Protein: DUF2800 domain-containing protein
Organism: Fundicoccus culcitae
Amino acid sequence: METKKHALLSASSSHKWLNHGPIALLEAMVPEEESSEAAEQGTAAHAMAEHFLKLKLNQASVLEDSIYHDEDMERYCQDYANFVVEHKESLGENTLLFIEQRLDFSPYVPEGFGTGDAVLISDKILHLIDFKYGRYYVNPENNTQLLLYALGALNLVDSIYDIEEVRMTIYQPRIGNVSTWTMDTGPILEWANGELKVKAMQAYKGEGNLEYGDWLGMTKIKAISKDRAKHHLELRKYQLREAHLLNDEEMAEVLSHVDDLVRWGKDVKEFAQKQAVENDKHYPGFKLVEGRSSRRYVNVKSVEQRAAEQGIQDIYQHSLLPLTKLESKLGKEKFHDIFGDLITKPLGEPTLVSESDGRPEIVKHDVNADFK
């Protein structure tokens, strides 16, 4: 029997199905999306991290080439390998290290399993280290993905070790986030045998509540969610049937919709166009047409040869590499050493955002107040 590649109730999506039961089955009804560049980069980084960790432990390993491999990734992954080995040594010479270990937490979550990047097991301590290559900050505290991995690891060594303490670390080198959350085993098992089992079974059956939130824009049903549509269609109450204007409170409510409303419109259009192109889907009032295109050379070398034959010169243009590409080419440290004093980062344009946004508010200085 072939092993399923993805669990319906995966650890990585647990923050969704634990709070919104029906989402797992709803997403399962939507075809798999093409892998994004960020996801492929993350996969390449995980492969390199595993490779360097095995080499550090004198284990055989072969790393396949990837277009995403660069000097920064190599440095980050070597640092990760050193970090894991240092923590292994700190727990004692008898500490076990499992690399890319399948972790089965199905006693609590139907068909639940995942993969632990690095799992350290000592006499009394379990230490999970989760390698993240993204730039979006991940907090280990109350992180349900790590808690499910912990349950899988405890299940793995239950008959051999009497684990009392679980350490869960997020290792996120690109933003300098290396943080650990520690829990006693007791509370984890209490949560697993109570709340987790109940909510996991609800999610497995597609039961429970699903409420609108910005999180819907990160799901596979982002374009076809009626809950998302219903939320934004509430704006119809502001249709201007009479000659009056929105007041400040009404304007604030409209503003609260804007960011996700724009994303929703884009998601719907992309989904519908893909259905029309790939599945010959027809939507009333819409049709497929040929989009704009630009002229291009059939063969660059032939153009160069023809130009030389005709005595035409100055057919090339030269420009400085974009800052990020030059930095990637040289590496951050070398780039900073050579060009650091020639780089500036101007203030960004003022942007209106929700008060929940973590960025500091711009405080405008009243020049007239200086003369009072």
Q: What stands out?
A: The chain has two domains: 14-205, 212-240+247-314. The chain has a mean pLDDT of 86. The two ends are 82 Å apart (CA to CA). Strands lie at 96-104, 113-121, 125-131, 165-172, 177-184.
